[in-house]
């Protein structure tokens, strides 16, 4: 089987799974408990926090563990709104955010907040000038997806950070769930206040996320109760999942350069092949994320292409795993002004460090066969 759906989820590293199993069996105390089993669990929790902090080159007091990217994005967007509502009710984001952010924004609009949605160009990129023009005296948050999950557009985080240096009271949040291997530093600009990661996107377990929260930035908690995670995220910590996440992140970053080069070669190889067809549109730019390639074959709906490839043991997805079963048109392609007749045909290939050029060649051979088969539909 060829697995080209790594943006939806990745295969768990065997070493991370081994860590998860061992910790589950051997470190079963509650880290909030005072007895020795609790002490052992808390020690492992803090060691994992330190390891993640070292990888992000930040303080361990700035690392918080959640249940995943969706919780992290919800916490930062809504937590900022709650904490800073007395200072302003204006938020800036983009038209191509993950639903964890876009739907949170919609909720806040219902509560009286004013949200500016920045448009994108045909590449899926915002204009930094537009962002600067959108800033108001009552702006409290700028929330930007670093790497778009549908087409792989890499937003100009450096330039955005440079702009926001002049606005120190505005929270700057980036959704970096798809960006773990994209930037040389996981926190790509010192002006970034909040960053969200999700373990199952980098070969860690499902159900664990990481939030970087810069020291000195205030954020209202969404989960209250026992006061875990320094009172910011109450609930008993998933020690086994957190330890496995720390290991998976370390392994992913150690392999980052070689895996990014490999994924880029696969993307370029398939992209060059697809570009030879007049009835194929490609929506992922050459300078976008190395691991994401989005395209559409004219008049062949995305779900049809997904299942046709699945029959040949090639696993891909429509543009977003979170919306694929809902039959929704891709929000990013809509924002890029791609006509519905094309966007409904879009699919996404997403590569991981285990994929090979031989698999790319096999995909190409199968696509050639399917292209001939689908000519009947296109007539």
Automatic annotation (TrEMBL):
One MF annotation (Gene Ontology) recorded for this entry: metal ion binding
Gene3D superfamilies (UniProt xref): 1.10.260.50, Aspartate Aminotransferase, domain 1, Type I PLP-dependent aspartate aminotransferase-like (Major domain)
Keyword Magnesium appears in the UniProt entry: no
InterPro entries: Aminotrans_V_dom (IPR000192), Aminotrans_V_PyrdxlP_BS (IPR020578), Cysteine_dSase (IPR016454), PyrdxlP-dep_Trfase (IPR015424), PyrdxlP-dep_Trfase_major (IPR015421), PyrdxlP-dep_Trfase_small (IPR015422)
UniProt KW keywords: Iron, Iron-sulfur, Metal-binding, Pyridoxal phosphate
Boundaries of every Aminotransferase class V domain copy: 2-363
Pfam families referenced in this protein's UniProt entry, alphabetically: Aminotran_5 (PF00266)
PROSITE patterns: AA_TRANSFER_CLASS_5 (PS00595)
Cofactor(s) essential for the protein: pyridoxal 5'-phosphate
Lipid metabolism is among the record's keywords: no
Source organism superkingdom: Bacteria
Family, as annotated: Belongs to the class-V pyridoxal-phosphate-dependent aminotransferase family. NifS/IscS subfamily.
Protein name as catalogued: Cysteine desulfurase
Source organism per UniProt: Jeotgalibaca arthritidis
